[in-house]
Specification:
By secondary structure, the chain is of the alpha+beta class. The protein has two domains: about 170 residues, Diaminopimelate Epimerase, Chain A, domain 1 (Roll), CATH 3.10.310.10; about 160 residues, Diaminopimelate Epimerase, Chain A, domain 1 (Roll). Helix content is about 15%, strand content about 35%. The strands form two sheets. The chain has a 17-stranded mixed β-sheet that branches. Strands 8-9 form a two-stranded antiparallel ribbon. β2, α1 and β3 form a beta-alpha-beta unit. It is globular. The relative contact order is 0.15.
């Protein structure tokens, strides 16, 4: 036998997809695990022709799930971001879209049991230590219960309709950085090597991000992704800005990292709260990541950020924020708590709906020379 087989469920989570694994089926030491994941996805290769990757960052993602021993937590999730043409496996940031498939995966693999017609489990994301409650529809079918994938919920960026999956994020501030506003400022004035000076907001409420008014770089924020991906001048400016801001955010040299994400923002065009064009970090996203949307929405409800004056939001301690993106919009409900000093309230929760679907139940094969498996 020249190949090693590993049990795998191939799943879509939100607007992303990739293979999901039971943690117990993968090697425990990180270097070997990363070599296995690279072989599974076919990286590094621009086409990922010898693996399961889809030749795009959104389809070069892996989910690893295990039972948790943390009190009050049911499952642990490790997200791995790979790139088609890189040998790096990044497990430092979260992915809220892939997170939507965690509980369905655990139920499908029998790691946990359904609780009734609706199953809510607490998940710890090992990447950043963030916890969330995920609710999945699990109706009965004869004497057993199953994960319901069919339904009437539609999310932009995914064709058709599916059953809703509710995700309630808990304490997301400073997921990777030292805090919500890692530079200590709501706005920072940055001067780029080409002499352009502009205001940005560096923020992390689930995803480290740099928000830039599109007009500051001579763009509208409503450009199609194809135009922005072909805009070499813009991408050069964004990368220069990313390197400077990454250092300001306490992240050090981010040249080889997938964060901070860069996001152009503008006033809403379709009745939402804000327009976004999000780079992940070098390719313009066809939609927007879940945690990126949470972070952008947070900036919209804080005074003094670059979103202040562009975003259209209501007041109160429960605010609905609609984040417009290239293929539609993303609605979140933010729960806020009044601040003792009378300034901005604190965002205490972010609830949103995603969908997920099991695409394939299988074994994935890698060359035995990469890893012989547990039998030897």
């Amino acid at each position: 036998m020249t190949q090693t087989s590993i049990p795998c469920l191939f799943m879509r989570g939100g607007t992303s997809r990739g293979p999901f694994f039971d943690r117990a089926d993968l090697p425990g030491d990180i270097p070997t695990r990363d070599r296995v994941l690279l072989a599974i996805m076919g990286s590094p290769d621009r086409r990922q022709i010898d693996g399961m990757g889809g030749a795009h960052p959104l389809t070069s993602k892996v989910g690893i799930v295990g039972i948790s021993n943390v009190p009050g937590v049911n499952l642990e999730f490790l997200f791995a971001q790979l790139q088609p043409d890189s040998d790096r496996v990044d497990t430092t940031a979260n992915c809220g879209n892939m997170l939507a498939a965690v509980v369905p995966f655990a139920l499908e693999r029998g790691l946990v049991k359904a609780q009734g017609d609706v199953t809510t489990l607490r998940v710890l994301t090992l990447n950043t230590g963030m916890q969330c409650d995920i609710t999945v529809q699990t109706p009965s079918s004869g004497d057993a219960r199953h994960v319901e994938y069919a339904g009437a919920t539609r999310i932009d960026g995914v064709p058709g309709q599916a059953a809703p999956i509710g995700i309630n994020f808990l304490e997301t501030a400073g997921s990777v950085c030292s805090g919500l506003l890692p530079t200590g400022n709501r706005r920072d004035r940055i001067t780029l090597p080409d002499g352009v000076s502009l205001d940005v907001t560096c923020i992390d409420n689930g995803m480290p991000m740099v928000l830039i008014p599109a007009s500051a770089l001579g763009r509208t924020g409503s450009e199609p992704t194809s135009m922005l991906n072909a805009d070499d001048e813009l991408k050069t400016q964004l990368e220069a800005l990313r390197l400077v801001c990454g250092d300001l955010m306490g992240l050090g040299d981010v040249s080889a990292r997938n964060y901070p994400k860069m996001c152009l923002i503008a006033s809403p065009l379709q009745g939402g709260s804000i327009v976004t064009r999000c780079f992940i970090p070098h390719v313009c996203h066809d939609a927007i990541g879940v945690l990126a949307a949470v972070t952008v929405a947070t900036a919209c409800v804080l005074t003094g950020t670059v979103a202040d004056g562009l975003a259209e939001v209501s007041g109160g301690l429960k605010q609905t924020v609609s984040v417009e993106h290239p293929t539609g919009e993303f609605t979140l409900e933010l729960g806020l708590e009044s601040s003792p000093d009378g300034r901005d309230p604190t965002v205490t929760s972010a609830t949103l709906l995603r969908t997920a679907r099991l695409l394939m139940r299988s074994e994935v094969f890698i060359p035995r020379v990469v890893w012989p498996g547990f039998m030897d």
